[in-house]
Amino acid sequence: MSLKYTCPSCGTPLGYEGLCWKCRCEQDRNAALAWTPEQIAEKQQNLIQNIQRLKEMEDPELTDFWQLLSYQDAITPEIQRAALAAEVFWPCEIYYHAPADVRDGLIHALLSAEYSSAASNLMCCLAMQGDDKAMETLLELERNPRPWRKGLYVDPSSYAQIGGWTFDKEGRRTQLTFDTCYPMVKGASSEASPVRIGRARKDTCPHCGGRMADMLVLDGRDERLRFLGLNGILTATCCPSCVGFLKGPAFNRFTLDGGVEIFPSELFDEEEKMDCYVSPEEYKALTENPFVLGKSPVPLFYGCAREDVNTIGGFGNWVQDAEYTTCPQCGKPMKYLAQIQWDTVFDCAEGTLYVEFCPDCQIVSMQHQQT
Fold first, then answer.
1. Residue 77 is inside which H or E element, if any?
2. How many structural domains is the chain composed of?
C-alpha cells in the first residue's frame, strides 16, 4: 500500500500530512536551543510555580523540564528546592548535582521512608545528586538495610548507577559516565569524522548469516575525544540483526590500532540459527548513514529528551533501567560510552543500542533496549 503523504522536510513517506516524527523532534530541539535568556527564565519560573504538574507528567511543564535540562543545562537550585518542598521525586534527574541543603532533605526523606516504593524513588534522586555524603548514605543503607529493602530487587549500589556512578563493599567509588558529551550530527557524505556509526564488514554472523557491522568506530586521539582517555581506536562490532535478541550484551575486545576480537555469544546454542532481519538495502543504509561527530560539546543529558539523538559520553536515554555491564574479564562495571538510536540509521529496527567499555581490559559491550 502506497502512503499518501511525504514529510515536507526529509521526504519520508507518511500516512498523514505534516512532519515525520524525527523532523518534528529536530524542529522542537532547534526551537529549544534558540530560547532567549528571557524565555529560559520564564520557563524556569513556571516550572517552580507548577512543580506538581511535573510529577503528574503534565505539559508544558514535563516538556519544558526535559528541554531545560537536556538542551540548556538550566535546572536551577531554586527548581530543585521547589521540587523537594513539594515532595516531587520524579523524574530523578531534577536533582542532578543539587546543592547540599537539597541533598540533606533527600537524605532525611529517605531515612524516614517506610515503604520500598518511596525509598526506591528517593535513592534514585540521591544517586542523581551524587556527592560524597550521598554515597555515604547509600553505603550505610547497603551495609545496614532497612525493612523496606526486602521489597526491592537490587541494593543501593545498583541505584547509584542511575546517577552514573557506583561503589563497592569497601566504599570505593567508581564513576560510570563521562562529564563531557558530544552529539552525532548529520554531515556531508565525504566529511571526515573521528567517530563512525555502522562501518561495513565482510564477515557474517554465525547465527543468522547476515553481515556483521562495526557499529561504532571511535578515534580517541581526536582532541574532542581526549576526555575518554583512549590513545587510539575503539571498535564495537556486532550483528545488527541478532544483537536485539540477546538476553545480555554482545562483547568484543579492541586494540588501539583498530583490531577487533569478537567474543562468541554464550546466549545462543552453538548450532542455533536465527533469521536475519536486516536486508541488503537496510544494511547499505546503516553503513552509509550521514552521522559525524559534532564540533562542540553539549549538556550531559542532551540525548535524553527525545529518542532521535546519538551521543558520545554524557548520559544515556535508557528505555528501561540504567544497565551497566560487568566486564567479563575483570568483573568491574563498565563505563557508558555511547548510544545509537536504531531508527536514525535504518528503518528495520527500533530501540537503542548502548555501547560501554572497560578501559583496563579494552573490552566493549553492546546491549539493546526497547519498549
1. helix 77-85
2. 2
